[in-house]
Amino acid sequence: NQKAILEAGAIEPLVKLLDGTDTQKENAAGALWNLACNNLDNKKAILEAGAIEPLVKLLDGTDRQKETAAGALMMLAINNPDNQKAIIEAGAIEPLVKLLDGTDRQKETAAEALINLAANPENRVLVIKAGAIEPLVKLLDGADRQKWIAAGALKNLASNNPDNQKAIIEAGAIEPLVTLLKEGENTQKRYAAGVLKNLASNNPDNQKAFEEIKRLVTLVMKGSDRQKENAARALRNFKWIQSI
After folding, report:
1. Which of 7, 64, 74 is CA-nearest to residue 34?
2. Tens digit of pLDDT for each residue in 35-86?
3. Are 168 and 120 members of one domain?
4. How far is it, in rounded angstroms, from Cα 232 to Cα 182?
5. Same domain flag for 192 and 88
6. At which of 80, 106, 131 does a domain end?
C-alpha cells in the first residue's frame, strides 16, 4: 500500500494539506506518519516534498496536530541522517521538548523522536540545551510505554558525554532507573540497564566503575531474590557523581 500511494503521487498533495484546515493538517500528518513507517523511499520522498518545516510548525498547533506531527517526525528520523539534519535545522528540538509535558500521546511521540535525534552526538547538545533531561526523568515514573521510551532517550543522551551523564544523575534518574531494572517489564529493564551502563562508561579511567555497574545490573536482572535486593541497593548507593 505504501508503495502504491507513493507511485500514485500522493505525497506532494498530502504535504500541501499540512497548510490546510485544522482537520486536513491532522489527517495529512497522520498519513505521512504511516507512509514513513519502515519505508526508506517514502521517507526520502516526504523530505524532498518539503514536509519537514510544516510538520515542525504543527508542533505548536492543536493537541491532535502536535501528536500526529511529532509521530511523523519521529518516524522520519529513524535511521535517516538526512531527515534528522533537516528536522534539527527546522527547529524541532525545542517544541519536541515542550511536548514532554503535554498529553500522554504527545509525551510518547516526542520522546521517541528525541531518541532518534539523540542518536547523533552533535544533536545531544541541542537536546540538553532545550531542557529535555528533567521531563525525561519524570517520564521514568510515567505510564509503561513512557518509561521505556524515556529510558531510551536518556540512554542515547548519556552515551560518551560526561556533561550529560552528570546532568542525568543530578536530575534524580538513578532511583527510577534502578526500580525499572528491578521491577519493570523486559523492554523497560533493557533500556534502564543501557542508561546505567552509559552513565558509568565515559572514559578509560572509569573502567573499574563501569565493570562494577555491569556486574550489579546483571545481578538485578538475573540474580536470586537476595542478590537482586543487594545489587539494587548498591546501585542506589553508588557514588555516581564521583565516578564520572
Report:
1. 74
2. 999 889 999 999 999 999 999 999 999 999 999 999 999 999 999 999 999 9
3. no
4. 7
5. no
6. 131
Is residue 136 assigned to a domain? no
* Digit-coded pLDDT (tens) for 197-242: 888 776 555 556 667 778 888 888 888 888 888 888 878 777 665 5
User: Which three cell numbers, joined as nine digits, stand for 114?
Assistant: 528525541
**47, 82 contact by CB (below 8 A):** yes
34 contacts 72 by C-beta, under 8 angstroms:
no
What is the distance between the alpha carbons of residues 58 and 229, in angstroms, rounded to a whole number? 46
122 and 148 assigned to the same domain? no
Domain range holding 66?
Answer: 1-131
Q: How far apart are CA 72 and CA 82, in angstroms?
A: 15
- Number of domains composing the chain: 2
Cα distances from 175 to residues 81, 194, 204, in angstroms, run 34, 15, 26
Q: Residue 120 and residue 27: Cα distance in Å, rounded?
A: 30
Is residue 37 domain-shared with residue 104, that is, in the same domain? Answer: yes
